[in-house]
Structure formats: C-alpha cells, structure tokens
C-alpha cells in the first residue's frame, strides 16, 4: 500500500496502523522529501499476510504542522578579549510577547561553559522551543528540557536549557550568537482507512477520510487546504 499526502511545506508525517496498532518500522518505507519547496509526502507499507488473519484494518494517518506564530530572542555575546557587552535582538509579531533568555554572560572565553535557559511567554498553547548557535540548530546533547510551568489563570509556559563548552569555531568575528525561537503551530490530521476481508471472498472496502482537528484548524482546512489529498492503493493478492 502507498499513502500520499500533499503537496505541502513542511512535509507531512505519515503513520501507518494495522488493526488499530502502529505498524512496525520494518513494514514502512518512507520517501524522504527533497528540496525546499512544496512536496508530496509518500510512505509505503509492505508486509506478508498471515493465513489466520480473516480480516484486516489498515489506516494511514498524515499529520501536518501549520505554524501560525513565531517569536525569537537572540543574544550576541563578545569574545573575552573584545570587551563588548552582549546585545539582545527580539523578533516578535505585533501584540505578542517573545521568549526570555536567562543566565547569559556578557563575555565568553574558549573553554568556558555556556549555561542558559529560554522560557516562552505565558499562553494557552505551549510553543515549541528551539536553540540556535550562530544560526545553526543546537545539537540535542546540548539541550535540557524542563517540564512546563502552569499558572492559576490557565496559561502555561515552556522552558528549554542550553549548555555547552565554547570552542574556537563558536566565536565568529569575536562574537557568538545564541538564539531561542518559540513557535506556535496547529496540527492538521487526515486519516484514510481500508478494511480487507480475506479468504475465499477476498474484497476490500472503499477508503474514507476524516478530520481530527479543532475549530481553528478546520477553518484553515476550508480556506487553504483544498489541495490536501490522501490516496491509498491496494495491490490485491489471493490468500488461500
């Protein structure tokens, strides 16, 4: 079976389910996207049918993350001998608050330990936090995730730590850029299901799709996702 979704940017994440359980990774062959443009996400499911199975339910779920708000705070810190103090550059949409970085020092020498934390502004939905060092994504081993903080008014904030040892390549032009980005997004999910009846009366039912999204996401679907498509192809085989 092959599941197609798109075109979209970013690519969708496709998950297969067999009889209600997620398919083993060995059954799935995803096609990695290429380029920096809208692409069709594709995933193939292949496995041997076992004779005891008289019915089989296969489900393809495609999830697409739609970003609706991004804010960031960048610290520019100087090399130890430059004497420059750090700068803060904040990028936020109008009317919103950006993330806060704590723990940074004005200057760093090669060999020093950077130990900083990024906290998002309070909001109803927790954002995804990311750290960048000189515009490059921070390595996973540099990151320290923390549990979210919940407030009495129903709002919450996320927190992500960054810790690493300063190397010569981190100091470019006697400065180093530490950037934390908070991204709010909605997940759009589309499902295609197929039920197979095996044995002498081998046949398959038609597939159907359903939205698993909130009101805000449904509005996005109605206005911008007319191009959304999931196809399922079934190669029939006789099971004796």
TrEMBL record:
Entry-linked Pfam families: C2-set_2 (PF08205)
Record keywords, A-Z: Disulfide bond
Q: Where is each Ig-like domain found?
A: 1-76
* Protein's name according to its UniProt entry: Ig-like domain-containing protein
What taxonomic lineage is listed for the species of origin? Eukaryota, Metazoa, Ecdysozoa, Arthropoda, Chelicerata
